[in-house]
Fold each of these.
Amino acid sequence: MTDPDLLPPNIVNRLAGRLHEARLGRSPVARLTDSYPNLTEADAYRIADRGVALRMAAGERVVGAKLGFTSEAMRTAMGIDSPNYGWLTDPMIVSDGTVSLGGLIHPKAEPEIGFVLARDLAGGAVSAAEVLAATAFVMPVIEVVDSRFEDFRFRAFDNTADNSSAGMVVLGRRATLPDFDLSRIGVVVYVNGELLYSAAGAAAFGYPAASVAWLVRRLAESGRGLKAGHLVISGGLTGPIELEPGTFVNVEMDRIGSVTMSVHS
Amino acid sequence: MNQTAPDPTLIDAAADRLMEAVRSRTSIGPLTDDFSFGIDSAYDIQDEVVGRMVGEGQTVVAAKLGLTSRAKQQQMGVAEPLYGWMTDRHRAEPGEPLDSGQLIQPRAEPEIAFLISRDLEGPIGLHDVLGATAAVAPALDILDSRFAGYSFTLADVVADNCSAGAFVVGNPVPLNGIDLSLVGCVFEKNGEVLGTAAGAAVLGHPAAAIAWFVRKLAERGRALPAGTLVLPGALTEAFPIRPGDSLVASFDRIGAIEIAVR
């Protein structure tokens, strides 16, 4: 049985393929909602899931998830009332602090708090406290987002279909038990030695663990969950950091350490 | 640089306008629309305004800095902060409602206040400030520009005592090695997060802003007296407030300050 309000599977496959090729060819495409103005959130997640399946068919492994639109200001600007999510796969993870622009289209970066889970986490009523209880450690990360859409312009569901602009995740050097209030930790972003932004953890959905809890509850709607060992990055804490070859980003997070990124061509 | 002698007519006339705006709770147009003066004269006007407050029986208890963020400096096209003075009349008590009826167009911003325990003077740096800091405390600075719509030049806002309106300071805590540049701040109004920041938003480190202030005072042959409370600059942007609002600024490691507006 097919839902008449949903896109037919062949269209979902075609749009996922288009975004997959755009990424591999570093060649951005027009917004999906330009051709399919009635594209629903459910369609967008089907396209994203299909895109992840294409990556897995190429040998990639899902290692975690990311949140998007976790700031109220961003949701208001996009005309939506909840965040979105995408999946992280192993080639996206950077552990040596260097990012090459070569594989990306028009990347931007933002600092986030990453949660690594000690155990599987699923359920439609999971709270932030349960997320913290299931967390092995938190670490500072820099997310490099990269939209597959022309000019980095999209509507909310385009972004969801595009795996929430997932690009790369640069890991911090320290892992910390989150036994303090993450919403109040200070975050300072230095670019080439100059202070660019500061923020506190509350910039992510009011409370970073709350955005992870939202994700778990949202996944439960389709009978899914997060796995032990998954890295969940809980949402951007500042405005975007523009990247070009030679850019050096240093993010200091109180209590949980720092993360640096050097950008190469 | 050629320092022109202060023009007493200008200083009196400008101070008259500012004092009348405060008294009548009515905003005015920029002074620079009608008078021509630079930053030095603007501080002369400020001294006159503060001197008149003291003449009315008020006591100077605090200093405040403005334009301590790069973003605000760029917005105003300037390369350094500015300062002003606050008296016991400006101080609101924590736990008591802030009477916005006394103000013209109040805006609130969160700050990390410093209690300075030694006289500070001359070419000092950040570490001298930290060495002279008895404690820090969560604070809210309530701006109240006398200029309609906060539309002013740098000289105007200096003359207007750095938009000083009111301030409220919470419980002081000893520094104990806290890195203030990394202290996170969450500013909420009526339960909604207005903004977040870390201490570094204030000129890289709030104590660096105070060191600038002390060096700047030396240019006018002045020192920062022991016992002064210093509000070194806002962590987030300033947000308009109105009766019924409830404001909370929470600082990691330092504590929170809360105020109800009536």
Amino acid sequence: MFFRENGQFKSTYRADQQLLPILQDRVFMAGLVAFAFLVVPFVASDYLFLSLVIPFLILTLAAIGLNLLVGYCGQISIGHAAFMGVGAYAAYNLVLRLPFLNFLVVLVLAGFVAAAVGMLFGIPSLRIKGLYLGVATLAAQFFLDWVFARVKWLTNYAPSASPPPVELFGWTVDTPVRKYLFLLSVLLVFTLLAKNLVRGHIGRAWMATRDMDVAAEVIGIRPIYAKLTAFGVSSFFCGVAGALWGFVHLGAWEPLAFDLNLSLSLLFMIIIGGMGSILGAYFGAAFFVVLPILLNRIPGMLGFEMSTATASHLEVMIFGVLIVLFLALEPHGLARLWAIGKQKLRLWPFPY
Amino acid sequence: MTAPETHLLAPQRQVGEVILAMEDVWLSFGGVKALQGVSFDVREHEVRAIIGPNGAGKSSMLNVLNGVYHPQKGRIVFKGESFADMDPHHAAEMGIARTFQNIALFRGMTVLENLMTGRNLRMKSGILAQALRVGPAEREEIRHREAVERIIDFLELEPYRKTPAGQLPYGLQKRVDLGRALASEPRVLLLDEPMAGMNLEEKQDMCRFILDANDQLGTTLVLIEHDMGVVMDISDRVVVLDYGRKIADGTPDDVRSDQAVIDAYLGSSH
């Protein structure tokens, strides 16, 4: 009964097609955003920001990017951390060589560079699918890893990339709270963009290609257009996320910061969070960031000691088990569980 | 009708000139000769049926017409333009739509989204405009939503708008498949066994929708169907295939009394 849309009639298609057609959703979202901007900065500790919230925000952005490709367009990629890396190195070089550029411009340009590289490595998707495409993107991961490590020009001949703190309109993004507010704003904007894309005709072209590629072609959707735009947009998101990961979260990074582990982690996030769901990217990233910290804390709370090595082994095992469970029981992840919960709330506590 | 880009709901049933034809088409897969020198034509606004025993090459014929298969020899003529082979995207662009024998809906998308894909060819706003969803992009979306809503109304799909297509029962999925093809406002619609596996009531509904599409939307129809009663009732002209060859072509009455057709269906003693 808390979630009934009874009596909320739509008399125009515009009203029916809006982002959150149900009043309760709009109120909840507005409350959540207000809470994130107005309350969280005052109550959260620096530790919480640096170890939890900031990685969560950036990984969510990257997971949204990957989900556009894997969850919406049905093309697998095991190389998306490399596209994040492309974004990070592109941003680094732009800041280094064109220091007068505003950081927002740098972010967008870095996104475009990543999109171009992503589309290049997306070309195999026109001929191959599934596992074979996965291996082709894996090749992209290894190749780009090699480039980051070997092409010294990328880091201006220094062993690691260490950019100056981000500055925006005379406002230095250095304290945890400032980083948080900056990242939250970027993430909200990109979430909106992603939401709009997937409910536009390009999003339908992606989903049609995912669900039934022959029928999509017969109805007039060019597979080359759908697949390459999906690779491009997805890599754009990941490139921006990569630049933020390097500049705001890490501060300075080695070539291995964007290795295969991160690519696989992104895939875990969207599998657990929910394929083909923007909300799922949030759930997946949150889960991924929170679980290790919980695993470190819980034994201590329960009164017995566990070495960090054991904890990190446990973490890997628990992730493995969860992925198998999700794939077997709920392929649409936490986002589907959320949707089911919402459906139940329409009637609860009444039986019908 | 104020919207210039639609010809929906303009009654115009009057069989006209030949709009689509195939001339001497040969198609084989390795040693299997699917089509052997088949020619036939479809006139504007007519209901044209293709019948024949299993494996006669009926589906191959549709697949050649809209460019899924490429024939080794022969031509396809559409609106006076001649093609050695077609590609599916070009066919869709020129106004040839089709439905599938084993339903090929986008199962993860809602009924509304499935029908909206039929409009994709006509939607022009770019990626950035869609991402920002301002002004023209939003208006375009709404304009096409209106066109799709007319199809939803036409096929009586109102209660299922937001239901994922994969969750619908079989008969409704067939109807959504038809709707998706109709949403693209095709000149010619190829229907591959639209009534396969349906009960009598569903068949009657489907017949009504198909005839209404022909009558009210002016869509030219080419259909493959096994139910002889349906074929003889609704089609203007029938072509009969057997083992990749055309054995008869004409009005239902001509075909029914044709000796070659009777032999093909009942078997012959020679």
